[in-house]
Amino acid sequence: MKMIKSLVLGSAAGLIAMTGAQAADLPVKAKAVEYVKVCSLYGAGFFFIPGTDTCIKLGGYLRIDTTFNGSGTQDNPAWNGDPGQMNRYRDYFSTRSRMAFTVDTRTATEYGVVRTFAQADFQFDTLGGSTYNPNSLSTTLGNNGNLLNSAGGGYTAVEFVFLQFAGFTFGKSASAYATPWQGYPGNNSSYLLGGQDTVTGVNNIQYTAQFGNGVSGTIGLDDPTVFNRTSIYNLATGGTSLATLNAVGTAAQNSYAGVQAPDVVGNIRIDQAWGLFQLSAAAHEVDASYNNLTGGLPNSLSEISGHPETKWGGSVMAALNIKNIPTGAGDDIKIDASYAKGDTKNVIATSAASPSFAMFSGSGVGYQSVGFGATTDAVYLPVSAGGDGSLHLTEAYGVRGAFNHNWDPYWSSSLFGSASWVSYDATAKAAYCAAYTASNKLTAANTSADFSCNPNYAVYQVGAITRWTPVKNLTFSAEVMYSRLDQNFAGTAVLTPAAPKPTAVYQFKDQDTVSFNVRAQRNF
Q: What secondary structure, in 3-state letters, does 404-454 show?
């Protein structure tokens, strides 16, 4: 009996020991994995940053543009530089490959949504943009941006970087003056003139108020340094001022002074099912540097020579978008009209700087014909040079628009166009023409009997684009655009344009050009 009892107790003890050993060998229960959760509050593509209540969306696009017969990519017309001259340094085509990367974060708070947004463009362009002129590719020019596009190169461009909170926007974003379509009512081209364009962002502070029923209002302060200024011309000639205007009517240097005040901008907008209507206004400070300049640059007499009194210019714009038109589902019309005085950037606008124009073509009268137009915010002629010493603000008008049509879910087309006018008052015109005549040493002996000077000009553009979207977020498009410069000089003159053009007799004549752009784009 004792033996049996010992065996039972021994077996029980062994089983208990084995069970304890097996339990010790079992793995400890792992901490639960925190998987990424979809955030449906702000639309498709958002997810929660693990461990936070902030939603984030990563996106962007990859785009390849090739422009033929242009001054650069994205359908930039051949309206200045070597392409405008039609010389052998111009490139017949240019290409840009870009990947845009966007980061959008949003967090719900008791004050509303806190949002941050940033876009960086990684891109590589044709070396020189549209020219192989040694002057454009010279390493002696200092920080030459053209040289970034050498083999294995490229660069990063910053578009939007902003923060939004409680109706305020801080940072680099679209101006409060802008329409939702910016300079793109239906076009791919970044060079459709006739109105504003801050599509790549401008440093600003703005506040938007929602009044209900689709009515909103926005007011803001824009930094004008990069985007909202064109040029001021000091039209003094002779002495230390030297020649002011070159053969194509532009000044060697910009006579703007430093920024003293931001642009004050705003809009009132109505968004409804039928479309959108918006009124925008801007106030822009126009301040010149000094009266005495050497080729537009300061000298030892500049500070004591005085300067014109600062003036305020501005611009206004009306914009209309009509949806649900009877031509088809998703079709619409977009149009905006602008007027500016001393704020020409809001009419002669591109996604980059405002261009001045210098175009050449054949002539049956002289060596060639030339047409040009100077884009300025103001001109002045100091009292010491025989003028009134005041800034004369340049006026500009513009209208542009597009009809956008969907043929089916895969094909769409747009017809677009614009018209822009730039004009100088009588005093400015007289001072400009006197400076042009003196700078280029024009006399009765080297001009025709019918020669006349008038710096006013207009630019007309019309174009069409067709897009094919074989699968979602992948689009191939082809765009053609005609641009015409309507200048107001007349007759002929002996001129010395920039090399390689020779000193010869040139006929003043309206000019035109046709550019063509193809694009492949994948959004993600």
A: EEECCCCEEEEEEEEEEEEECCHHHHHHHHHHHHHHCCCCCCCECCCCECC
pLDDT digits (tens, 9 = 90+) for 142-169: 566 667 777 878 889 999 999 999 999 9
Q: What is the SS3 string spanning 224-272?
A: HHHHCCCCEEECCCCHHHCCCECCCCCECCCCECCCCCCEEEEEEEEEE
Please spell the DSSP secondary structure of 353-399, one letter per residue: SPPPEEEEE--SSSSEEEEEE---SEEE--GGGTS----EEPEEEEE
Q: What is the pLDDT of residues 276-300, one digit of tens each?
A: 999 999 999 999 999 999 878 899 9
SS3 501: coil
Residue 21 has pLDDT above 70, yes or no: no
Q: What distance, in Å, lies between the first and last C-alpha atoms of the chain?
A: 83
Looking at residue 148, what DSSP letter applies?
G
Determine the pLDDT at residue 19.
45
Q: Are 272 and 394 in contact (CB under 8 A)?
A: no
Cβ neighbours of residue 500 closer than 8 Å, sequence gap 6 or more: 85, 87, 88, 89
Check residues 2 and 54 and name the one with the higher pLDDT.
54
What are the structure tokens assigned to 340, written together? 């500016």
Q: Give the residue among 155, 265, 154 at the shortest CA–CA distance from 217.
A: 265
The pLDDT tens digits for 326-338 are 999 999 999 999 9
**How many Cα atoms within 13 Å fall on the side-chain side of residue 486?**
9
Cβ neighbors of 35 (< 8 A, separation 6 or more) are: none
Residue whose C-alpha is closest to residue 57's, from 45, 48, 49: 45
30: confidence class by pLDDT, cuts 50, 70, 90: low
32: DSSP letter: P
pLDDT given for residue 32 in this prediction: 56
d(CA 326, CA 8): 95
Structure-block tokens of residue 354: 């405002």
Q: Give dist(CA 233, CA 455) in Å, integer.
A: 13
Contact 85, 139 (CB under 8 A): no
